[in-house]
Design brief:
The protein has 7 helices and 5 strands. By secondary structure, it is an alpha+beta fold. Strands 4-3-5 form a 3-stranded mixed β-sheet, with no helix packed on it.
Length: 159
């Protein structure tokens, strides 16, 4: 990620925290920086493991509480997976997610026609929509290929 873009994101982070009356602590900043550089939609546990050497006083509970705070401030997006393990990302650009139900990887994709589609009129009767996104579940190409290779080996061994 470009240095200028990272600096802007950090400035935005600091402004959101200060605007909410939160101190920009070293731990909060490091959690945000780590998440800002992550491309794998890490879980709280994964973030903790990545940060524990740099921040020996950091606890897993602190990471969970920090992520919850960031989510309330609109700084991060939480993605629930099929395994019920929340994964996190910094909100960069509007996108959607493909979740592989085999390996658990999360892939970003763009869907401009969805983004510009109008919601059905009866949704307004239900409530106010803050945002909409799509999570597509399936099998990624790597997992599908691995399964095909396994099936081929199994078929050969039966002959």
């Amino acid at each position: 990620m470009e240095t200028i873009h990272i600096q802007r994101q950090i400035q935005h982070f600091e402004q959101r925290c200060k605007g909410a009356g939160l101190k920009v602590t070293h731990q909060r900043l490091e959690v945000y920086r780590e998440l800002l550089g992550a491309r794998d939609h890490p879980s709280a546990e994964t973030l903790y493991k990545r940060l524990e050497r740099r921040l020996p006083t950091l606890s897993l509970d602190t990471v969970y509480r920090t992520l919850a705070t960031f989510e309330k401030l609109g700084l991060v997006h939480r993605l629930e997976t099929a395994a019920s393990q929340a994964r996190y990302e910094v909100l960069h650009t509007r996108h959607h997610h493909f979740l592989c139900d085999v390996c658990g990887q999360v892939f970003d994709f763009f869907w401009p026609s969805f983004d510009t589609a109008e919601l059905p009129s009866n949704v307004g009767e239900i409530g106010t929509v803050d945002h909409a996104s799509v999570v597509v579940h399936g099998t990624c190409t790597a997992c599908a290929q691995a399964q095909q290779e396994y099936d081929a080996r199994q078929a050969e061994s039966l002959q």
